[in-house]
Queue: 2 jobs
Job 1
Amino acid sequence: MRAGMPRYKPVHRDPLLLPVVLAEQIQPGTFEFALDHLVDHELDLSALDAKFRNDETGASAYDPRVMLKIVLLAYSRGLNTSRRIEEACRQNVLFMAVSGDSQPSYTHIAKFVRELGEQIQPLFTQVLMVCDRQGLIGRQMFAFDGVKLPANASKERSGTHAELRHRAERLDKAARKMLELHRSRDAKDDDAGGPGGGGGADQRVRRAQELHREAQAMRDFLAREQPRRNTKGQELKSNVTDNDSAKMATSKGVIQGYAAQAGVDAKHQVIVAADVIGSGSEQAMLLPMIGQAQVVAAQETVMTADAGFHSHDNMHALYEARIPALVADGQMRKRDERLAGQQRHRDKPDPLHDKTRIQPRTVRLFRPQDFIVDAAANSCICPAGQTLYSSGSRCTINGRLAHKYKGAKSTCGPCPLRAQCLRDPQRTPIRQVAIFVRGAASGHAATELMKQAIDSARGRAIYSQRIATVEPVFANIRHTKRLDRFTLRGKEKVGTQWRLYCLVHNIEKLARSALREGRR
């Protein structure tokens, strides 16, 4: 007996007239509800209204409150381009509800974000004040850190002015070769009586014109912009597309981008300060970021930052301003006795490597701790048993006091341990070593006080909370909100986009706080 055929529920795709009440799509406890209430009832947007002069003449404009809601809602959903936001306003019921079915074009959306400029920082501060009124800021500890994000610029168009000038000449030369090849082939076709031109020839001409335009753009840039220089007067690499950005080394290679900064409160991970810098060095951002955070800081709030923000000038400025802070230095982990045995784990082979293939092991070079100091003879003994003689008794290296020693050619030259002692045994004749004087002051009183504070039991306990405070914020913005690169150009516009994402993060905290209150 044959089994019967299964029966399924019917699938209908006929037109349906569904009643949709837009106001009911914004439910309490959600991000969009907190956003809608915040923009309509808490924020002062009179500065945005002041931009318009169309009360008597001119076309009607999109309400800046509606535009702000659209952009922040889009960023919270991982939509970071104006075209995708425009599409959401036409197709997504939630965006229709928040915008009142306004449906602005992508050009209006891009123009709104681009021109926020001076208004974004007051908006950020107003939302921060709302977070404070809701009790979301604890003020016990603020953690400062930065994340490097790619810019809307190509790192191939970066270089010093001399390098860019040379690149423009090479582009012109390549374009001339293409045109010469095009003319020679045309001449051969004419002599042979065959058809000239063709799709390939047209493509070569277009490519040559593109190269000429790129070379001209570089020359215009060089004529318009002065070389960028650091505090020491050294020339930095410029970028033709976005000269405010910079090349930065990251764990995944070198990028052309910005270092986005954030200061985060430890209680609920509310962002209390936000900014960007077009440089891989973050030392210059510590004091401005702390200055921003002072709006909601208390006198006893501890400011924490990693070694990337450490400098003697910063430590002196914090000491003079009497600001409680814990800023790590480059030697902090080496002074921590709890990490004394970590080197033996680093010397082990990678546990994730392919064990079926033999990997050559890196030779561990002798370190200063492998040398034995003989204070009475004013010398030290190397691992091979040879004597290194004093070459400087009170030398300052990175602010620390050290004693330098060096070997002799007669003993270092024939030494069988040269490969373990010197990075380049073929070129380096002798070994030199610097032994730091334990407990010696660096000559910078504020730096020494900071070291004592961060090495104390209380300092270590507070500083250990820093990474768990700020890193989840970066993870939320980069991965959940999908800000994997900035889409605008220029420090001001990139700073606007970064603060908008920080606004989204803080509004999420307000929404969750309201949801918790509603459940009680």
Job 2
Amino acid sequence: MKNKIQNIALILAVASFFVMCLGIPGQAAKLPKDILVFASTDSITTWDPSAAYSTESSYMPNIYETLIWVSPPGSDKPFQPGLAKDWRVDDNGLKWTFYLRKGVKFHDGGILTAQAVKDSIERTKKMGKGAAFIFAPVKEIKVLSDYTVQFILKEAAPFDRIIASANAAWIISPKAVKNDRKWFDAGHEAGCGPYVLESWKPDEEIVFKKFDGYWRGWEGPRFNRIVVKIIKEGTVAQQMLESGVADLATRIPTESARTFDAKPCCERPTGPSFMNYAIHLNTAKFPFNNKLIRKAASYAMPCKDMIEVSMGGLGQQSVGPIPCGQFGHDDTLYQYRHDLDRAKKLMVEAGYPNGLKDKVIFTYASENVTEKAFAPLVKEAMGKIGINVEIRPMIWTAQWELVKGDPEKAQDMAALLWWPTFSDPYETLYSLWHVEKKPYWNFSYYKNPEFDRTILEAYSTPDAKKAKALYAKACKMLVEDAPSIFLIDVERAVYKRAELKGYVINPNYPRVPFFYNMYKE
């Protein structure tokens, strides 16, 4: 095992030496076709599948599997079988029955059974970490037979979307399900996915090898090993791709993104991500307790310029709070287009023809390069309608702590990048705008009981058509009340070598490269 890791490292070192040190023009590294090198920005915060809820989500779907998967855009059906070959729900939406595949093996030799599914989800629920909250509707899990498991809910919920989540829904080997987080965080795993965690150097490198016993088999051209190099600098990742030292990268510099796929050696496929940016306005105090001023701020935003400057054009102006392509999105919602004249008229109507005397505080996560780039445009645009903005960059944890404090002492405006934990709008709408006794995710401190009732009704109905109509009604309330400025639906870009094929962008699993589907031509 040690020799294999050393061989991979040697291949990478030699390739880097010839390409970067010798600088041979027009030459690229020649890595073996059965090895994929991924220049990733994503480190590991935990290897525990019950607690994972951060950047390690990029890797978890290659180690672990869920009962079902949400299909990528353009698919015939909304869901695809995973560890469950079939599933049923009763008419009331309270009993969900899953029929498991037989003969599925875990990396440690464990066997998939209904009891393993029950123990995995109950472990996650009991731990209460990460995205465990998605299983709040679950009242009981029943083992009906060795290969049939039933979830009984407290109230109806879109459980197919929940159990297909990219967080908290992973099934763990029965041999390891009782192990604690320390065991996993030592670099152990217990999945049944296509790849096994072979080695890990925190913030440096992760190596995966193929699991010979994977239930889908290994026919066709696939990778035997995946080498992940943790590269935080986009310029370095770009150099690795162009030189052939890497096959795939998470990020390259924004200024290079537009011309990246003009290079014969490289490609930049794009697609939806279900990530979006918004600026949340503090409705608990002046000036944004005035709806007219909130609407003026929405009209003032130069969203197209923000997309160009901060994202290299990789995005589109949001239509409401639910990103384009996600279940519940409504293209017919009203959209605040950049219109300074209307914004100024609203300021006059609000009683401030000469603007505001006091400045407003605008916070953003200093680590987020997109927010850093569009912050000056926000300040400039607001200044044109008489609102003086003080930009206050903060590390994310500090920004969140400020938000969770006393709204009277908190920021006036807060930028936030958001993406859903599972593909139903309820989590987003509930988290960001439901009435909270103590601030947590509701950055705008919005309070509308009718909105709360509407999204709960949408979440609880098994009728998808009715649910969509109710979500549209709730989103219309947000657009009308304007507690937040809906800025940008993020377009996902993949930076890769031209010979790397099989990458599928599935916005339900943001940032996840499914290594099993990829190969080199």
